[in-house]
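TL;DR need structure tokens for one chain.
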Amino acid sequence: MKKTVIIGGGITGLTTAFYLQELSHGEAEITLVESTPRWGGKITSAHERGFIIEGGPDSFMIQKGAVLELCHMLGLDDQLLSPNSTKRATYVWNRGELHPMPEGMILMAPTMILPFLRSRLISWPGKLRMGMEMLIPPNGKDDESLASFVRRRLGVEALEKIAAPLMAGIYAADPETLSLQSTFPLFPDMENKYGSLLRGMIMLKRVQKRRHEKRAPTTMTLRGGLQQLVDAIRTRLNSQNILLNCRALAVTVTGDRYEIALNDGSRIHADEVVFATPAYVTAGLVQEIDPLLASELREIRYVSTATVSLGFRLSDVERPLDGFGFVVPHIEKRRITACSWSSTKFNHRAPRDHVLIRVFLGGARAESVAEKDEAVLVQLARQELHATMGIIAKPVLAKSYRWHKANPQYEVGHQSRVARIDQIIASHPGLHLAGAAYHGSGIPDCIYSGVKAAKAITNNAPWNRNEIYDTLPAC
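>> reply
TL;DR here they are.
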């Protein structure tokens, strides 16, 4: 069997190792190298005082089948947990109040007239401008920013109050630079097919109604936190050559193999190398092999974010937590980007008579906030919850996580850059790129990229990726 070195022990690297082991029936010679003291990357869950706290992502989308397939292989089917179906509202902080997102909104487009007209979130001129979307012809661009698309089709108010905060919550991105084609290609597809985003959304709703489709959950989590996924993979891996606290310094070519220099002075030789690291880390590792590849990888920008989870007694929170939480538009000039009511969104997240609230900070428009000390982040989060939700009580639990340069930005032109990167890497047999920087940043995308790398190494048939959403998530 070929010897494979996987650099990076996040969910991508772990998945690559797991599938390599499975596809080779345990015969693959694998070395997995992780520079930090723990596995899983941004996936980390803490159990403290009856609370289950997620430091990074708290769920995964299920339209892409990779993650459900992996959970099944790991025996985690009975641990899958859907969001609370009775309290699905999402709110928007606007002019000092929390306004519910109108019923029938699918991401940024309304599909039900009366709830939209009754909403106080959008002004009447803003509603009129959104309604005019059906009269605006497609522009036929190959790619444009989210801001450009929404401003052109739905107007400034829809961008600032709905689209921008929602998309910032998903990608931690600046809507002025976020590539629509790389993140939500369905929107320009609808524009071109139906001549209108609203018309396309309404058609989608009608098709669902004719099929008598019920509103199924679009996301799921694991009962004990997403750390269960990391732990389950780790327990299935052969412990030989699984290296923590070990940093790869450089990858070079020696004859017909690759040599990986490690920070302890040792060197590993491999036939195949999988880079499951952030693009800027990979750039440094491949600099000697291919400076052009390194240059392209460095062009993928990353931003920093942070989360603060606060546990309160239920009696200390006067406002009903009757939804999943709220987003905060950038124009409101607050110091948080969103707030998730974790114990409402998913059951079993807080002990009886307590609630768990998670605050999001940083991102492309406010990176400096996410770089502050943990104690400062907790204090800042408490101040923002006081201002937005009226919570003045001291939390019974506070835990923060900082993610320095951990979120890749899919900026306009991202697909063209990735196509160039794919072409260059194809000229280096045995080198493989995987992870969030390229074709999708969600957990299912990272898992898929690991599966793809494993199948390429073992010469298995390409994996059938479910790239098209049958339904769109509603707010």
